[in-house]
């Protein structure tokens, strides 16, 4: 693999910059067309809908409005058009406030960068049109495919926003080396536009199927989508991207080969004739949408300013009205409202420090405090800590703090229990670094306790005369709620980091032997950052996966070389079988790893216990490759239905049954399965028992770890129990294992009834 040329400090700095990015820039011509249509009528016109549906930045703002107004897609395929149907015209007009319009008088963009903006927009429109036309051929929703194609390169729009000169240099370097842009980005920045786009898509509430295309449209997804149907959208966008480039819609001079397009089309079972028809009509379709956005409009700057002046008074009145409503809501809010509203901050796709910022802002507003600061404990290898500070008037900023070596980050009195401390007596080092001046005598410190440990703290300035003891329980419940939300966010984000690292590994491997390395445009060579201890379980899983992948890949390379050297070798058939066998192993390992690292979000429903057990036994029979399982089933007549994702529960139970069968030499059982009401009254308890060889205490302690197996190396991947545990916990259940050598194993699954 090519040596990394980026410095972790550069990557971390870029991540911080992109994380702070709230919106993107549009050209004045597009803003003028939007505003002109908006002022013509109070309802959503056809032209306005088409304008929003033709610009990635408007589409992003549309999904942001859905999030702000708590509007979601329920049992329907997401797309830009469906989002427009779910929002009223008053909300849609706010889209203009979610974007930035290029100021022609500040020279924000040089001429070449301005041209790049138009080229990038044309490329996205071409990919969107291609994807929309291809979708019916593969039985996919055309509106979803179009939306995914339009937004697939939002990571490049973000780069154009915050680092336009660097993006120009990256494109130049890609042209010189005839390499993909993302390969140059990874060398120079440590991350590419697909990762940038994915994280921004999560932050901006872009639906997950579209986000999947943003993230994986440069990855080898054929293996994934054949087992995970949701990934097919990425493969479709990848093909549309190839067609668009071959038709001339590209921001680089890199030549897209017809062979690449044909391979992608073949994997999706799309004919050459169908692609040729799409290519023939593509320039006209793109031109139509570019005209709609006014990209060639003369004097676009003046036209926009003129239209803006016409609507200024109307928007000002509406803004004042909204502010009055917001102030009224703030005045009537109570402590219960605060805790309830904090729950809306819980979003597994948002980084922990961003969640902390939302909580801090709500804390200040509800309790009418002065400055509020929330800081989180770092990973053990980090010396700095991250904090958010909400100043007066709700201004929020993220800062990095350096705790003194002789000071504890969390004061001892609140390490594992709740108390209210005077902040200057314990964390004066923090107050000195915040660049704000709170009233020290009124500045308090509360711990953020989750699962019996402190994960951070809240520092805030009281601005009203009050007995702090009187409000002790009120602050305690608020701090506990905040800590629980932040703890979930931390755990979720560490899992996402692993999935992204694994995706980068798959992508970078394809171009590790590309053009010779050249000096980086923006970074120096440095070793990749170490994984923090908080994801030690995932790091162990990655190590196991790498070990399993290495040997099969080596065998494949060696055997392929032999076949290439001598095609008439008598052992050809045997070698081909070995290649097939090891390729299947790689595919299975990747499938297990991705299913564990990033499982699909549950779709819970009421399901009968007997149905789950019957389907799990049938699935286990197929997985074990046997005709019959000697299963003894006993279901209590008082058992209620289980509330969870039935498919995930069947998979989890089947994995546990297969594990039980492995404890027997003949792999047929017996396996006893019982179901009874849970001890708490709101759960159902399943027990799966076997009389096999059992496990000692050391083996039992590792049984649910990913890639752990007590079988000889190469025999089993050890993902059965770990995957089952992951799926059960994802559905708000728990798993407990009891075992003794020679006495068998008893696995207890507790699942909710509602």
Summarize the structure.
53% of the residues lie in helices and 11% in strands. By secondary structure, it is of the alpha+beta class.
Tally of domains: 4
Q: Give the amount of beta strand, in percent.
A: 5-15%
Instruction: Give Rg in angstroms.
Output: 28 Å
Spatial arrangement of strands, main beta sheet: 5-4-3-8-7-6
CATH-derived architecture of the largest domain: Orthogonal Bundle
Q: Helical proportion?
A: 40-55%
Cα distance spanning the termini: 50 Å
- Which outline best applies? globular
What number is the mean pLDDT?
A: 78
Largest beta-sheet characterization: 6 strands, antiparallel
Query: Which regions are unreliable across 5 or more consecutive residues at pLDDT < 50?
Result: 1-6, 509-536, 712-717
CATH class of the largest domain equals: Mainly Alpha
Instruction: Count up the helices.
Output: 28
Please tally the β strands and state the result: 15
**Structural class estimated from helices and strands:** alpha+beta
Question: Can you describe what's shown?
Answer:
- A hairpin with a 2-residue loop joins strand 7 (443-450) and strand 8 (453-461).
- The model is unreliable at 1-6, 509-536 and 712-717 (pLDDT under 50).
- The chain contains 28 helices and 15 strands.
- The protein has four domains: 8-292, Hypothetical protein af1432; 334-493, GAF domain (Beta-Lactamase, 2-Layer Sandwich), CATH 3.30.450; 533-597; 605-752, Heat Shock Protein 90, CATH 3.30.565.
- It has 754 residues and is an alpha+beta fold.
- The two termini are 50 Å apart.
- The strands form four sheets. Strands 5-4-3-8-7-6 form a six-stranded antiparallel sheet.
């Amino acid at each position: 693999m090519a040596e990394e040329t980026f410095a972790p400090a550069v990557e971390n700095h870029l991540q911080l910059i992109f994380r702070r990015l709230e919106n993107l820039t549009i050209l004045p011509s597009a803003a003028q067309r939007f505003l002109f249509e908006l002022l013509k009528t109070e309802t959503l016109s056809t032209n306005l809908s088409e304008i929003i549906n033709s610009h990635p930045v408007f589409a992003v703002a549309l999904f942001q409005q859905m999030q702000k107004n708590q509007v979601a897609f329920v049992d329907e395929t997401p797309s830009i058009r469906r989002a427009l149907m779910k929002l009223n015209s008053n909300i849609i007009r706010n889209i203009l406030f979610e974007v930035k319009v290029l100021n022609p008088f500040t020279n924000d963009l040089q001429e070449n960068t301005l041209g790049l903006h138009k080229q990038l927009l044309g490329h996205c429109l071409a990919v969107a049109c291609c994807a929309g036309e291809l979708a019916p051929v593969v039985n996919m929703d055309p509106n979803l495919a179009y939306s995914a194609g339009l937004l697939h390169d939002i990571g490049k729009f973000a780069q154009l926003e915050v680092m336009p000169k660097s993006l120009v240099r990256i494109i130049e370097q890609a042209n010189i080396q005839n390499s993909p842009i993302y390969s140059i980005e990874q060398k120079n920045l440590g991350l590419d536009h697909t990762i940038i786009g994915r994280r921004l898509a999560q932050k901006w509430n872009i639906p997950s199927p579209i986000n999947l295309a943003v993230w994986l449209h440069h990855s080898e997804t054929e293996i994934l989508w054949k087992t995970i149907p949701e990934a097919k959208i990425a493969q479709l966008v990848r093909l549309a991207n190839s067609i668009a480039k071959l038709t001339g819609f590209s921001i680089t001079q890199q030549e897209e080969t017809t062979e690449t397009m044909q391979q992608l089309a073949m994997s999706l079972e799309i004919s050459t004739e169908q692609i040729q028809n799409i290519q023939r009509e593509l320039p006209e379709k793109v031109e139509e949408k570019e005209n709609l956005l006014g990209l060639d409009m003369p004097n676009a700057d003046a036209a926009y300013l003129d239209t803006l002046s016409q609507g200024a008074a109307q928007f000002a009145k509406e803004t004042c009205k909204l502010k009055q409503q917001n102030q009224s809501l703030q005045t009537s809010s109570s402590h219960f409202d605060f805790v309830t509203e904090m729950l809306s901050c819980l979003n597994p796709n948002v980084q922990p420090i961003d969640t902390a910022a939302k909580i801090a802002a709500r804390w200040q507003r509800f309790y009418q405090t002065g400055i509020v600061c929330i800081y989180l404990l770092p990973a053990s290898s980090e010396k700095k800590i991250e904090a958010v500070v909400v100043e007066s008037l709700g201004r929020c900023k993220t800062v990095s703090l350096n705790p003194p070596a002789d000071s504890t980050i969390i004061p001892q009195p609140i390490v594992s229990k709740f108390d209210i401390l005077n902040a200057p007596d314990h964390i004066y080092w923090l107050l000195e670094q915040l660049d704000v001046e709170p009233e020290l005598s009124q500045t308090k410190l509360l711990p953020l306790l989750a699962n019996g440990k402190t994960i951070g703290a809240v520092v805030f300035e009281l601005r009203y005369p009050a007995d702090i003891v009187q409000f002790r329980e009120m602050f305690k419940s608020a701090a506990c709620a905040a800590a629980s939300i932040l703890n979930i966010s931390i755990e979720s984000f560490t899992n996402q980091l692993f999935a992204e690292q694994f995706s980068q590994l798959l992508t970078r491997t394809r171009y590790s032997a590309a053009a010779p390395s050249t000096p980086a445009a923006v970074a120096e060579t440095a070793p990749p950052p170490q994984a923090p201890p908080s994801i030690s379980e995932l790091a162990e899983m990655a190590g196991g996966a790498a070990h399993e992948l290495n040997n099969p890949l080596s065998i494949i390379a060696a055997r392929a070389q032999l076949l290439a050297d001598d095609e008439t070798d008598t052992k050809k058939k045997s070698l081909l079988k070995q290649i097939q066998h090891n390729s299947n192993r790689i595919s299975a390992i990747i499938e297990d790893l991705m299913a564990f690292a990033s499982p699909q979000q549950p779709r819970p429903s009421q399901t009968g216990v007997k149905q789950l057990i019957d389907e799990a036994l049938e699935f286990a029979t197929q997985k074990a490759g046997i005709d019959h399982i000697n299963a003894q089933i006993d279901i209590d007549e008082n058992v209620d239905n289980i509330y969870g994702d039935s498919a995930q529960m069947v998979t989890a139970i089947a994995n546990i049954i297969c594990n039980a069968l492995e404890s027997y030499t003949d792999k047929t059982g017996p396996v006893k399965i019982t179901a009874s009401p849970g001890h708490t009254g709101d759960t159902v308890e399943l027990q799966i028992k076997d009389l096999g060889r059992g496990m000692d205490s050391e083996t039992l302690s590792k049984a649910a770890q990913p890639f752990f197996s007590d079988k000889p190396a190469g025999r089993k991947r050890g993902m059965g129990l770990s995957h089952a545990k992951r799926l059960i916990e994802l559905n708000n259940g728990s798993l407990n294992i009891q075992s003794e050598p020679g006495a068998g194993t008893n696995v207890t699954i507790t699942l909710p009834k509602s």
